[in-house]
Design goal:
CATH architecture of the largest domain: 2-Layer Sandwich
Shape: globular
CATH topology of the largest domain: Dihydrodipicolinate Reductase, domain 2
Distance between the termini: 28 Å
Largest sheet: 6 strands, parallel
Number of domains: 2
Bound molecules: NADP nicotinamide-adenine-dinucleotide phosphate
Order of helices and strands: EHHEEHEHEHEHEHHHHEHEEEEH
Helix content: 40-55%
Structural class: alpha/beta
Length: 327
């Protein structure tokens, strides 16, 4: 049976999730693709950490070793931040590898460049995992709404801030206590600034803007407001009036103008985001033919994120066989 060789950059929550999903779904992959998928290399930073990786897999801190794997076809990227991810993925594309990434911070900035570069090298990029984890929003926009004109997107794109607002309202917890629980449960980072400050949602929103409108608004003009200034009194007052605060990332296209914001928004019971609770993410798309669509699900975590990446991988391999373009 034909073998597809892949490498994983980063072996934290997401990288390990991809590795495990490929091991546990090898039979499904073989049934769908008619190939064996082999993880040939894993790039990490710290060689001393204990990892559950088979002996035959090359584990290295040197990206050159990954690039030198003979017949490497696919690179899964799950490291953190812009650098060196962008440089690694550029080099992988130059080597004619297909890419699947989860790295939203990098992709918000360099996604458009990488997609162009991939087109020149005739390789594909999957980036479903960069926005809303396991929720298939990228493919929905890219493939199911190609003819539709999308005028507005409203979304909950950060599970941590949604969880905190839900806990504060339901259990009357202070912001600090709700954040502490989110950290204990592994939803929030030790440094939660990106989540509660709205920056994580902002990066994802910029990726959605590039995909939906072919461009991003000027980053300096995007209002980004976190949730930490919301008081229990405000949440309670809203609740008594049948409103809920949601941390909403919004994109609107009017004429040639794109406006974007991330901020706490009061939603009423008829709003599609009103009942999106806990760590769930949701995206509401207003499309001229389809109408208003809402897609909801787990926005992060090992398995949902690995699901998005492995599905991207399958589509890429299938697209090579059918000329079905993903990027
Ligand atoms: N966690 C989620 O639910 C989720 C969901 C969607 C998207 N993402 C995105 O996915 C990416 C990975 O997230 P994560 O939660 O898996 O992070 P993580 O648990 O912190 O793991 C990061 C991994 O990357 C490795 N790494 C970091 N910098 C590196 C470098 N310069 N060279 C080589 N390896 C490097 C680390 O190596 P060591 O193990 O040696 O330290 C670690 O294995 C991020 O971009 C994140 O935004 C995460």
């Amino acid at each position: 049976m034909e073998v597809i060789k892949a490498a994983i950059l980063g072996f934290g929550t997401v990288g390990e999730g991809v590795y495990e999903a490929i091991q546990t779904h090898q039979q499904q992959l073989q049934n769908i693709l008619g190939v064996e998928v082999q993880i040939a290399g894993v790039l990490i930073q710290d060689l001393e950490k204990e990892r559950n990786i088979a002996d035959e897999v090359l584990v290295t801190t040197n990206f050159e070793d990954i690039l030198n794997i003979p017949d490497l076809q696919v690179v899964f990227e799950a490291i953190v931040g812009e650098d060196p991810s962008y440089s690694y993925l550029s080099q992988a594309i130059d080597k004619r590898c297909d890419i699947v990434t989860a790295n939203k911070v990098m992709f918000a900035t360099y996604g458009e460049k990488l997609i162009k570069k991939a087109q020149t090298q005739n390789v594909k990029i999957g980036y479903e995992a960069t926005v809303a984890g396991g929720v298939p929003i990228i493919r929905t926009l890219a493939q199911q709404l190609q003819v539709n004109k999308v005028g507005r997107i409203q979304a909950i794109l950060n599970g941590t801030s949604n969880f905190i607002l839900t806990e504060m309202r339901n259990k009357e917890l202070s912001f600090e206590n709700a954040l502490g629980i989110a950290q204990e449960l592994g939803y929030a980072e030790a440094d939660p600034t990106n989540d509660i400050g709205g920056f994580d949602a902002f990066y994802k929103l910029m990726i959605l803007s590039s995909l939906t409108f072919g461009e991003q608004p000027d980053w300096d003009e995007v209002k980004i407001e976190g949730i930490s200034a919301l008081s229990n009194d405000q949440l309670e007052e809203a609740n008594q009036n049948n409103f809920r605060y949601k941390h909403v990332a919004e994109l609107i296209k009017e004429g040639d103008n794109i406006s974007a914001s991330v901020s706490p928004v009061l939603t009423d019971a008829d709003h599609p985001l009103y009942n999106v609770e806990g760590v769930d993410n949701a995206v509401v798309i207003e499309a001229n033919l389809a109408g208003t669509l809402t897609i909801q699900g787990p926005g992060a975590g090992k398995k949902p994120t690995a699901s998005a990446m492995i599905e991207d991988f399958v589509h890429i391999i299938q697209s090579k066989k059918t000329s079905y373009a993903l990027s």
